Amino acid sequence: MVKAIDNRWWLAAAVAGFAALPWGLGIYHQHVLIVSLFYVMMTASWNLLAGYTGQVSFGHAAFAGIGAYASGILATKVGLNPWLGVGAGTLAAAVFGFLLGVLCLKMGGIYLSLTTLGFSEILHIIINNEYEITRGTMGLQVPGLIAEYSKLAYFYIFLAGAIITLAVVHRLIHANIGLNFRAVQNDERAAAALGVDVVRVRVLAFTVSSALAGMAGALYGHYLLLITPQIPSLDQQFLVLSMTVIGGLGSFAGPVIGAFGLEILSEYIRAYGEYHVLAFGLVALIVARFAPRGLVGVWKQFMDRRRPAA
Amino acid sequence: MALLEGRRLSKRFGGVQALTEVDFAVEAGAIVGLIGPNGAGKTTLFNIVAGALPPGEGQVVFDGWPITGKPAFRICRRGIARTFQVTRPFGEMTCLENVAVAIVNRRPDLGRAAWGPMAMEYLEAVGLGALAETAAKHLNVIQKKRLEIARALATEPKLLMLDEVLGGLNTQEIQEAVGFIRDLRDTRGLTVFWIEHVMGAIMQAAEKVIVLDQGRVLMVGTPKAVVADERVISAYLGT
Ligand SMILES: Nc1ncnc2c1ncn2[C@@H]1O[C@H](COP(=O)(O)OP(=O)(O)OP(=O)(O)O)[C@@H](O)[C@H]1O
Ligand SMILES: [Mg+2]
Fold first, then answer.
1. DSSP strand E in B56-163: where?
2. What is the CATH code for B1-79+157-239?
3. Residue A194 contacts B, CB cutoff 8 Å
4. Residue of A171, A174, A181, A194 to mutate when probing chain B, most B C-beta within 10 A
5. Angle between the N-to-C axes of helices A234-248 and A254-269, in degrees from 0 to 180, rounded to the nearest 10
6. Distance in Å, alpha carbon of B138 to nearest chain A alpha carbon
7. Domains defined for chain A, CATH in brackets
8. Does residue A227 carry a pLDDT above 90?
9. Taking the model in full, what pTM does it have?
């Protein structure tokens, strides 16, 4: 108990320290932090699905796109308040996630990967062709979340979004449903034999994960003020995947570390061309093969070695 | 009265006819043995009853309910628990969490503070108390089989289906295990359907034995009658 309280203080101190960070930074670095926080939302929610239930969705960026475009279109066509738009975008992603989940999760893991990949492509085609509504590759100009544009304000909005995302993930994995997630990931036949409704557990994880991606995407769109097909692109998808895998799939801290690490790194290597996503993908492949628990796993192993078990 | 009944069950895997028109009954409160040479179709029969495999032809009735083709988790929640011959632990989870999965799907209202001690009781019952916090992948084969039993019991079933849980045990341990299973029946009123190659155990524990051979019921009778039967002896020697 004492230890739990201790941890909470550490966490509060870390968050407070982080919250003070942008005050000492210029606009460019504030931007990098905001984008990093967007990726924290994306990786943490993707990890909920891939890391804790073992289902690989290639549609996470697509769901972010649904959130962004739903909110953006509602704002431009109906004049909906962007904050309500973020809610609507989250809901839209949840509904799509639920329907897609019900459609394909009965058939098992690999079908989710294939279906979400297809879904991604279809969404891409729709966005490019429905120029009147989406403005295609030109991008859709949307209003911001706050009247007066301020990077600092956006930083705190994104920080709140990341904390909400992490809190939802934390709650779920530590509740009974988290046991079911892991049971399904470890052995779905054994789980079913013990009374776990495997399909329901998967659909739930997929719906929540997609909804959180929708929220992240909606916020991101209203930050960039221009929504382009870059948000729901496969590039983006593989970046999120690489961040999570390199940081540590199936661990709580891994996606956060991966998101910050790779976003900051990509700012440095962007000068060498747009191949960094490809490079990250290759690194992620190597990590998945030799250190499936990512940087967090390597760190834990290192600490365990230093303190040999009693 | 029969708690579990199979009527004309048939199952084919491609070219292999694993079960052919199998009729059987497991009486409430009984320990019923299921024996037969390797490949006779015993595990297949369990898989169909438990909903782990799509059924071929025929019907399974449990406690008055037709359960043929129902999903495994529903059959479990109706009161049938099974162990896997080739154990299927949740390797990355602790033994305690392995058992907890069975508890929380029966009692979703329980939090960790409540299911922790309950799960511990099931682990202690099978002698795994000391390994509660160990990841299941680190257990040896015998311990994994015990974990299978603990998890199955934690679903609080009416019918417990055991698939070769005694493999690897010595005579002394087999005696203890038989005592344990009989005790479950006597004190908890559990019905037991038990596949076992260790004939001595079935001889001691079961009231009735069903013999399968090449997917057909070869004979049904008391353990004594079964081991004395020539067809049974030649079926075993023939393989
Ligand atoms: N899922 C499956 N797919 C294909 N064939 C299978 C499958 N399960 C079982 N079989 C085949 O069905 C037959 C019966 O197998 P089963 O496992 O039921 O036998 P068993 O009586 O349990 O044998 P053992 O005593 O060796 O465990 C075998 O020929 C086996 O190869
Ligand atoms: Mg078998």
1. 57-62, 65-66, 80-82, 159-163
2. 3.40.50.300
3. yes
4. A194
5. 120
6. 14
7. 2-309 (1.10.3470)
8. no
9. 0.89
